[in-house]
Amino acid sequence: MDDANIFRWLLNVGEIWPSPSNVDPNPKSTAVWATNPDVKKALDLLPAHEHAKVLRFYHIRDAKLSLASSLLKHRAIADTCHVPWKDSNVGEDKNRKPCYKPPDPAQPKMEFNVSHHGTLVALVGCAGEKIKLGVDIVQMNWSKDYPMVVKSGFESWATTYEMVFSQGEIAEIVAYSVPGSSSQDDIRAKLRHFYAHWCLKEAYVKMTGEALLAPWLKDLEFRGVRVPLPSQAGQLGQINSDVEIWFRGVRVTDVKMELQAYGEDYMIGTASSSLDRPLSEFRNMRVDEDIYPIKDVD
Ligand SMILES: CC(C)(COP(=O)(O)OP(=O)(O)OC[C@H]1O[C@@H](n2cnc3c(N)ncnc32)[C@H](O)[C@@H]1OP(=O)(O)O)[C@@H](O)C(=O)NCCC(=O)NCCS
């Protein structure tokens, strides 16, 4: 792995660790899913508390995301900090942001952050402890949001998020429109633009670790948000990296933000506290080839 770059991994769990077709959507179904040999193989790589965390999820789709998140974190720590898989312990910082705390402070350290939504899991990471990173995946929820916007109007729908956005951001979100689009397309475009705002803000607050509890959430503003064009299903799409960041009315110039489309329905936001360290392209990870410990298992 190139230590100079910030690496970015994606794992799509849609096609892996399938649930048996006869599994009922009830709490026991996750336990039944866990008996699938592929799932069991993955779960057995995790420490007991992470194994238990995965199985606490009611829905198999959530258990899969949690399982993938754990595996990616261990792979990232093992590779970046050069420790065996069994020593790649995932801890938490004071804000409960997952992190790696080496047993000996003189050993290599790293920074990473994870996000998951739908069937997609992303991890961004880099060696060292100076750079802070945040990542967020959003998935447009057309079937839930679209009828609500039609019913209550976009402005009313958007202002329900005023706990997160500044007045300026809400105004930008409400005013957004694509010239010449039909009203149906306009709602979709406005929703995509809203989710672009959301994704950027989440990535930033996850970088700091304060997450959505940050008391300054509404003091942080993204201006001139451009929505990356969607791509074919399962493909990475357009990247926008020119958003303006403002904090209490002052332009922030020491944080890099990038927003990338993935398929029609996803966007991935990345925040980095380093302007210099390049962001690698997202790499599609494969469980068997890229994640499972083959060389370093003991
Ligand atoms: C925690 C929070 C950032 C998750 O955001 P989300 O959009 O629901 O979910 P995402 O998929 O983007 O992120 C989930 C990942 O964020 C990471 N995360 C958790 N706390 C975090 C924090 N304080 N800062 C940055 N990342 C955090 C974890 O890796 C988690 O995945 P994992 O549990 O599989 O390891 C968001 O719910 C939040 O800000 N909550 C308020 C703070 C809070 O409740 N903290 C208590 C956590 S127990």
TrEMBL record:
GO terms for molecular function: holo-[acyl-carrier-protein] synthase activity; magnesium ion binding. The keyword GTP-binding does not apply. Its EC number is 2.7.8.7. Residues 36-126 form the 4'-phosphopantetheinyl transferase N-terminal domain. One of its GO terms (cellular component) is cytosol. Residues 133-228 form the 4'-phosphopantetheinyl transferase domain. Keywords: Transferase. Transmembrane segments: none annotated. GO terms for biological process: lysine biosynthetic process via aminoadipic acid. InterPro entries: 4-PPantetheinyl_Trfase_dom, 4-PPantetheinyl_Trfase_dom_sf, AASDHPPT_N, P-Pant_transferase_sf. This is holo-[acyl-carrier-protein] synthase. It comes from Heterodermia speciosa.
